[in-house]
């Protein structure tokens, strides 16, 4: 009998694996609704939905292996990274989904949230002030008007699966919606700047690299405190705090 593996678990949701089946438990039904609809609309490989019985969504595993892990070197080839870039471009060029997205905030809202988060990081002694101030300055470049695209919203490196140089699946679509395309590219390459050129080569269009780097700082600043409070370690080698330090 297959063992139950806890893939991730915190106060908002949990994902369990039993053999080749993943069970996502989420008390927020709207989040599950978004995930199912986004996978149906996205023009890229996604997991098969096996069944739904709130608050549980069962999906099939996808073939291949994760593109990598944050904090660890990726063993995927440059061609695989380029193939991911091409897939992401296809997603971004797809018709916009009918919903805005759970966390889609404009530049003004992001600025307000960022200012508050930076203050808490310093006041609570989580990060030194000079590190926060420098990255806050870098993040400014991301706070501009953008043309909405169909975005994944949480395109972490371990949410993308490849087999050789082929993309076999992109998972975890609960944050999908209309958003900033460069945020997706930044999330994909955060902690792996050595593969940014490969991704952009596959993406196949001119992008503002300064904005992507700004999103690295922005995403890290907004994520550190949440990660700490939910039992994750943003201070691990190669993770969010190291990303922030690399901007100094």
Automatic annotation (TrEMBL):
Gene Ontology MF term list: transferase activity
Top-level taxonomic group: Bacteria
Keywords for this protein: Transferase
Top EC class for this record: transferase
Catalytic activity, EC: 2.7.-.-
Domain Aminoglycoside phosphotransferase: 41-211
Stored SUPFAM superfamilies: Protein kinase-like (PK-like) (SSF56112)
Protein name from the UniProt record: Aminoglycoside phosphotransferase family protein
Organism for this UniProt entry: Streptomyces justiciae
């Amino acid at each position: 009998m297959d063992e139950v593996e806890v893939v991730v678990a915190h106060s908002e949701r949990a994902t369990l694996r039993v053999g080749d089946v993943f069970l996502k438990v989420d008390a927020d039904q709207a989040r599950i609704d978004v995930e199912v609809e986004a996978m149906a609309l996205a023009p890229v490989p996604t997991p098969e939905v096996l069944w739904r019985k709130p608050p549980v969504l069962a999906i099939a595993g996808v073939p291949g292996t994760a593109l990598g892990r944050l904090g660890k070197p990726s063993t995927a080839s440059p061609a695989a990274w380029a193939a991911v870039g091409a897939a992401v471009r296809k997603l971004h060029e797809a018709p916009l989904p009918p919903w805005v997205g759970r966390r889609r905030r404009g530049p003004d809202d992001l600025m307000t949230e960022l200012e508050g988060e930076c203050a808490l990081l310093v006041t609570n002694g989580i990060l030194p002030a000079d590190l926060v101030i420098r990255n806050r300055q870098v993040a400014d470049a991301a706070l501009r008007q953008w043309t909405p695209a169909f975005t994944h919203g949480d395109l972490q490196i371990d949410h993308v699966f490849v087999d050789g140089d082929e993309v076999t699946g992109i998972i975890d679509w609960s944050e999908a919606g209309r958003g900033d395309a460069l945020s997706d590219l930044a999330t994909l390459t955060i902690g792996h700047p050595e593969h940014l050129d490969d991704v952009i080569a596959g993406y196949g269009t001119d992008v503002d690299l300064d904005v992507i780097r700004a999103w690295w700082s922005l995403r890290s600043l907004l994520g550190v405190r949440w990660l700490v409070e939910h039992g994750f370690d943003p201070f691990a080698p190669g993770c969010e705090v190291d990303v922030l330090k690399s901007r100094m």
